[in-house]
Amino acid sequence: MQKINQRLTLIVACFGIVLLLLSVFTGLFQQAWFVFLIALWLFVFSSCCYRLTPLFIARNPLDKFIKREQQHLLLFTLSGFFDRTHGPQWLVIDSIEKIQCNDDQCTIFSNEQHQYTIGLPASKTELMYYFNGLFTEHEKQIIIIC
Question: CA 4 → CA 7, 100, 131, 134, distances in Å?
């Protein structure tokens, strides 16, 4: 997720440079719609920069995105600007066959031939540690966490 956020910030910054050049070399800065476009760019750019800070990671721990309620796993994803989340996606724990952890994301495979991929601000080792603490010993024998 960190690499994606860095690329996204770079792309948005390039758009900002183009907007800056347009405002310097043309009379577009006199237009109300162009000023609105610059304000919208500032909002998007500040969101992108925020996602690169340690504050973003501190405000978005794993337990905000993956929760357990008795026999269900609730999955939330980041969406939109700043810390907005989308979800939950309900998943019966007994239907989970495998959880594959990667840096910044995990994929959960169920026996119903479904797979759910969620992006998370965490490393592979943090995700594996979190899942090992989330499930009971019996569930860990059934679910492959890799």
Answer: 5, 19, 24, 27
